[in-house]
Design brief:
The structure is a homodimer.
Chain A (H helix, E strand, L loop, with lengths): L2 E9 L3 H15 L5 E6 L4 H7 L5 H8 L3 E6 L9 H13 L4 E7 L15 E7 L9 E4 L7 E9 H16 L5 E6 L5 H15 L6 E6 H10 L6 E4 L1 H14 L7 E5 L7 E5 L16 H13 L3 H18 L7 H13 L1
Parallel strand pairs in A: 1-2, 1-3, 3-12, 5-10, 8-9, 8-10
Antiparallel strand pairs in A: 4-5, 4-11, 6-7, 11-12
Helix pairs in contact in A: 1-9, 1-11, 5-6, 7-8, 9-10, 10-11
Bound molecules: 3-isopropylmalic acid (2 copies).
One 3-isopropylmalic acid (IPM) sits at the interface of chains B and A.
Chain lengths: 346, 346
């Protein structure tokens, strides 16, 4: 019989609330014969304040013994900026070699967008997750003086770029429109830009059916608000991917519905699934957070583990729920979770 | 009697067409007693193909002997990506220490925006122009092999950050709302991020009337499309500024009306004014380009040189022209330039 051994990291702020709904929907959607085992991990601000630890080797060992990880949100104003981001979130992505950061953007019927004219939006961003300006390479001299110099080094390797570009081409090949856009800034960041562009063009030869285009990241932000329907699959570097996926989320229904997967395609390490939004301390504990992004992240998780019908059922349930919201009073985090659980079970 | 000694760089693609209109409006707006002298410089793709040169020391010497520079656009698909950008545009910004890259965004009445609900948009981005990931620092080893490693080094100095942050505070102080947002990614790029944040907080003490906020660049893209009215003045690094000013242009009327100044506040070197848009080779020579962005760049140029009433007259003329476009057939580049020249003279 089948089983899912899931590591759960509720985290900070609204993380707890949304993850509870994600798990509720997960339990409701799984067939009887699938055994779901979950283990909670208390990472984030509380743990940091109590012990000074963010993510230890022992933690990584414990997490590694799971099929996948579901994360709510990590981050709190009481912790200096960067400590939990670098010490937990990025440390985990790097340790588990999550090099494919998958972020779908789909504007569902009935969902509000800040864009006029309700454009058709249905694309997926494949963001590199283990290189670029995120490596933590760099440093500071003469800190705090008027002669301070601080550097950040973006590190890009043919190995790292090729594997994520190949993943993106395969995804584009599998979609009806078969389009792939590379987003970079190769006219200014010429060293990294040429590496990305050359690798992209080389891998393109193996995928003759995929239509490709190149776009500078600044121009891409224009197209994301004026012609978002032009995108099908996008592949891009870690930092550009961070920036454009927030914009993509904003135009396609907001971060309340933006899901993501930090994927290790080889399966050597468990992949991690999390909403794109943060811990939103301003609304934490009030039942105001929309759990849809977490629930959609559970769908990505199920698809990754091979439960395609269940993933699709969750996505359909969220779409139906969103469509019915129009003109209705706001519901609590739990009410939305309950409604989704009923839908996926039914 | 007063005089303006202007270096003109029409450049590539639509650069020629839009600069001609910019100069037309400049001549029309200047009082009789101001002597305008212009000198054309043929930089860009033609020169590069003919001589292999992009910008020589002699060129810089010649440019230096002017009060200001007006540039159309540089760039052509026939030149490899990066050659003219790094060899001309960025070389000039760095050589003339254009550390304040000023980019106003104002959604004028009657102007179309991709955003629903016609929000109020009136902010200015102060983008650092001589540091960050734009320094060209970095390199490549094992180029073209499967073991290639390419790096890009973002270089940030207290000196460089403080002068641009101070400039932004002064601008915020002079505006009615007196608000300044720092945009960075200090939770990931912790070395540069902490430098920017510390300098920002230190300079803030000298401007107690200015309300400040900090925002990550990814979150900023969300606010730019959901709450653009929240921004007054933004200060940010070179690369983040590049990205968010294209997005800002897109939401506030498009790159057809986005002006910019590359300013050397000390006056040691001439400042350069240019539209945010590129050379648009696809529509070059067809009279389709909107010269408004160049004309508005001329207004920034005049303001920089102390011709405030003339700058305001140009801005009013463009606003009036844009408001009257609604429902009218499209006009040519020259027709728009003629109309603006008549307005500013009248
Ligand atoms: C919190 C931060 C480290 C993270 C990132 O920059 O990747 C977040 O913005 C995201 O997009 O997942
Ligand atoms: C053409 C390029 C070098 C330039 C930049 O990145 O600064 C452009 O995008 C701009 O914003 O002026």
């Amino acid at each position: 019989s089948r089983s899912i051994n899931l590591a759960v990291i509720p985290g900070d702020g609204i993380g707890q609330e949304v993850v509870a709904q994600g798990l509720k929907v997960l339990s409701a959607v799984l067939p009887q014969d699938v055994k779901l085992e979950t283990k909670d991990f208390d990472f984030g601000a509380r743990r940091y304040h109590a012990t000074g630890e963010t993510l230890t080797e022992a933690d990584l060992d414990a997490l590694k013994r799971h099929d996948a990880i579901l994360l709510g949100a990590i981050g709190d104003p009481s912790v200096p900026s960067g400590v939990l981001e670098r010490g937990f979130l990025l440390k985990l992505r790097f340790a588990f070699d999550h090099h494919v950061n998958l972020r779908p953007s789909k504007l569902l019927p009935g969902v509000a967008t800040p864009l006029a004219g309700q454009p058709e939006i249905d694309f997926v961003v494949v963001r590199e997750g283990t290189e670029g300006p995120y490596t933590g390479n760099g440093g500071t001299i003469r800190k705090g003086t008027e002669h301070e110099v601080a550097t950040e080094v973006s590190v890009n390797t043919a190995f790292g770029v090729e594997r994520v570009v190949r993943d993106a081409f395969a995804r584009a090949q599998a979609r009806p429109r078969k389009k792939l856009a590379l987003i970079h800034k190769n006219n200014v960041l010429t060293f990294a830009g040429h590496l990305w562009t050359n690798v992209f063009n080389k891998v393109a030869e193996e995928f003759p059916e995929v239509t490709t285009e190149y776009m500078h990241v600044d121009a891409a932000t224009i197209y994301l608000v004026t012609q978002p329907e032009r995108f099908d699959v996008i592949v891009t570097d870690n930092l550009f991917g961070d920036i454009i996926t927030d914009l993509a989320a904003a135009v396609s229904g907001g971060i309340g519905v933006a899901a993501s997967g930090n994927i290790n395609p080889s399966g050597e390490f468990p992949s991690m699934f999390e909403p794109v939004h943060g811990s939103a301390p301003d609304i934490a504990g009030q039942g105001k957070a929309d759990p849809s992004a977490t629930v959609l992240s559970v769908a990505l998780l199920l698809r990754h583990l091979g439960y395609e019908p269940e993933a699709a059922r969750i996505e359909d349930a969220v779409a139906a729920d969103l469509a019915e919201r129009v003109g209705q009073p706001a519901r609590s985090t739990e009410e939305i979770g309950d409604a989704l659980a009923v839908r996926v079970a039914g």
